[in-house]
């Protein structure tokens, strides 16, 4: 695993899991998504990970037009690396999921490294009432939902986005996803450095136990050697302990309202920037430095902000 003594802080601004009724602070309009992304960058995030939402209902949207309403503002107001989802929202077709990234040609795009059961239905029981009629069915439907990213879909996305110089954040929800990435590497579909995002705590993926993080790291070390950078995110209350553990192990971290709505027990985060500030304070106390956007660009081998299409 590559180490340069500094930690890349990624921040996921809105995602497609949480619904508007879960927190009044979840950004859903282009104005609020832009503001929160810029705020996270100002707080020290080197990478901002972005989804789009229907501004009226807050439902996840694949619309390139909505992305176009906030991406230029983020680029103009910050130097952060923009990382656009190719996971989109639950139930989107692969062409919908890729549309915004293919239009924007970002420095980074997320890439889920396999299909798996993705169950967030339990969240519905914790919401007293919903503001929009799509929210409860959206959550409860995941009891029968498979997050699809087959080898055919992965290869097509890698080839199409790789052709415009976009690099990937390889999202690995379980150990098998690391082997899927190794298979793609063996086929010459992607080149190092590999930015591996290990994800813990989603029902259907690997569980949020520290031993699992150690196992994921040991497996990635064996498969990728010095050709990869580990990053970690964990869902809900596991967020801060897991990302801190990643940094202690020499890895990188991801925070943001996509992954957790709270700043601490019982206290909703008002912005993703609050979580960035918190993890940077923790890392500072541990004498761990965080990378600037340009340092992160060098670590990840991205094409640079001047070469995107927005």
Automatic annotation (TrEMBL):
UniProt keyword annotations, A-Z: Metal-binding, Transferase, Zinc
Listed cofactors: Zn(2+)
GO MF annotations, alphabetized: 3-keto-5-aminohexanoate cleavage activity; metal ion binding
Domain of life: Bacteria
InterPro entries, per the entry: Aldolase_TIM, BKACE
Entry annotated with the keyword Transmembrane: no
PANTHER family xrefs: 3-KETO-5-AMINOHEXANOATE CLEAVAGE ENZYME (PTHR37418:SF2), 3-KETO-5-AMINOHEXANOATE CLEAVAGE ENZYME-RELATED (PTHR37418)
Protein name: Uncharacterized protein (DUF849 family)
Source organism of this protein record: Amaricoccus macauensis
Lineage: Bacteria, Pseudomonadati, Pseudomonadota, Alphaproteobacteria, Rhodobacterales
């Amino acid at each position: 695993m590559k180490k340069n003594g500094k930690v890349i802080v990624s921040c996921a601004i809105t995602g497609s899991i949480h619904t508007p009724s879960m927190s009044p602070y979840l950004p859903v309009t282009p104005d609020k998504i832009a503001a929160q992304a810029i705020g996270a960058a100002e707080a020290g995030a080197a990478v901002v990970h972005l989804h789009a939402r229907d501004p009226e209902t807050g439902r996840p949207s694949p619309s390139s037009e909505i992305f176009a309403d906030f991406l230029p503002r983020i680029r103009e107001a910050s130097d952060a690396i923009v990382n656009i989802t190719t996971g989109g929202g639950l139930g989107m077709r692969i062409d919908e999921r890729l549309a915004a990234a293919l239009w924007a040609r970002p420095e980074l795009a997320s890439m889920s490294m396999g299909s798996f059961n993705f169950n967030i239905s339990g969240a519905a029981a914790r919401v007293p009432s919903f503001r929009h009629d799509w929210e409860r069915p959206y959550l409860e439907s995941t009891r029968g939902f498979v997050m699809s990213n087959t080898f055919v879909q992965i290869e097509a996305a890698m080839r199409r986005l790789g052709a415009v110089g976009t690099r990937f954040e390889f999202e690995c929800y379980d150990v098998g996803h690391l082997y899927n990435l190794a298979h793609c590497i063996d086929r010459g579909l992607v080149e190092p450095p590999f930015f591996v995002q290990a994800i813990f705590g989603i029902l259907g993926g690997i569980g949020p136990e520290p031993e699992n993080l150690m196992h994921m790291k040991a497996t990635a070390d064996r498969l990728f050697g010095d050709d990869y950078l580990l990053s970690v995110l964990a869902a809900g209350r596991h967020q801060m302990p897991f990302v801190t553990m990643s940094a202690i192990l020499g890895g990188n971290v991801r925070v943001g309202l996509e992954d957790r709505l709270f700043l601490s027990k019982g206290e909703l985060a008002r912005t993703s920037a609050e979580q960035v500030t918190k993890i940077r304070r923790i890392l500072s106390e541990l004498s761990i430095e965080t990378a600037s956007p340009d340092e992160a660009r060098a670590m990840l081998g991205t094409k640079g902000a001047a070469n995107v299409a927005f």
